[in-house]
Specification:
The protein is of the alpha+beta class and 297 residues long. Helix content is 34%, strand content 24%. The protein has two domains: 107 residues; 151 residues, Thrombin, subunit H (Beta Barrel). It is rod-shaped.
């Protein structure tokens, strides 16, 4: 028997597959009759096969639809990512333009408040040397800039022009050790010379120990020396240390200009200008000791 089953297994299998649709149609008939014995046997055999075939077809359809859905999602994500990148770039450009407009508007407002004839220039390079603190501007001798001219912003004093070419100008900042700005304290009218100290701080030199100087005091350019306009902010006192002996005191000054964010500056063509809003009152000049260092340009 088994021999015949093995020999004719192909025909038997084919017969069963041909019989399944017939039985399925017969068992799905609307005729009100009970299943016969062979119906029950056939259903018991074919039901798992039908279930497996149905599950396989459903899984195949689900996988196909899922793959197509994921492919569409991938394409959509790629498109949205590209659009998001472009929008972020546009936002960054708009923010930069807004910040630049704000700075330029501040410069224009500052020019209106002062009797100044200036040239606006952009910082294109900074000296990274620890011994020489300077910046380079994109305007030079062809634009009317000359050596020794004062450089300021709406925040305060930047420095002075050290050398020029036709299209560039190097500016030594007040942070440089060789820089010097004659200043007056706005509150007490005490005088001193602001010189460079570190990459972030300056020092107020030649102040008497009896001078009224406090932390937070604002320093303004005095106009002496013929370089910096009178009344421009130089910085604020950040530390005061009075010596137990001697006639001077140590004063540290935080510059009014944030040199880490310096981008646009103004080169002053007329050093005799002064601030309109806060003109310095006329005051008799104190006697200067012969050994005391005078105001530097």
């Amino acid at each position: 028997m088994i021999k015949y089953l093995k020999e004719y297994r192909f025909y038997i299998t084919l017969f069963l597959f041909l019989l399944i649709p017939v039985v399925a149609l017969d068992t799905s008939s609307r005729a009100p009759r009970d299943y016969r014995f062979y119906d029950r046997v056939i259903l018991a055999v074919t039901a798992p096969i039908q279930t497996l075939i149905s599950w396989t077809l459903e899984q195949g359809v689900d996988l196909t639809q899922g793959y197509l859905y994921l492919w569409n999602v991938k394409q959509q994500n790629a498109r949205l990512f590209e659009e998001n990148r472009k929008l972020l770039g546009q936002i960054a450009n708009l923010n930069e333009a807004q910040n630049e407009n704000t700075r330029l508007r501040s410069i224009l407002n500052f020019q209106e408040k002062m009797k100044l004839e200036t040239i606006v220039a952009r910082v294109i390079a900074k000296d990274v040397s620890t011994e020489f603190r300077a910046v380079r501007l994109n305007r030079g001798e062809l634009a009317g800039i000359k050596k020794g001219m004062a450089v300021i912003t709406y925040e305060g004093v930047v420095g002075r022009v050290l050398r020029v070419t036709d299209h560039t100008a190097d500016v030594v900042t007040i942070l440089d050790l060789l820089s010097a700005v004659d200043t007056v304290i706005e509150r007490s009218r005490s005088r001193g010379v602001v010189e460079g100290l570190t990459d972030e701080l300056c020092q107020l030199k030649f102040t008497l120990r009896t001078d009224d100087i406090q932390v937070g005091d604002t320093l303004l350019s005095s106009g002496l020396g013929g370089v910096f306009p009178r009344g421009v902010a130089v910085g604020s006192v950040s530390r005061v240390k009075k010596k137990q002996f001697g006639i001077t005191q140590e004063v540290e000054v935080k510059p009014a200009v944030d040199f880490t964010k310096l981008e646009e500056v103004m080169i002053v063509l007329d050093q005799k200008a002064e601030v309109l809003e806060k003109p310095l009152p006329v005051k008799s000049e104190p006697k200067v000791e012969p050994k005391k260092k005078g105001a530097a340009a």
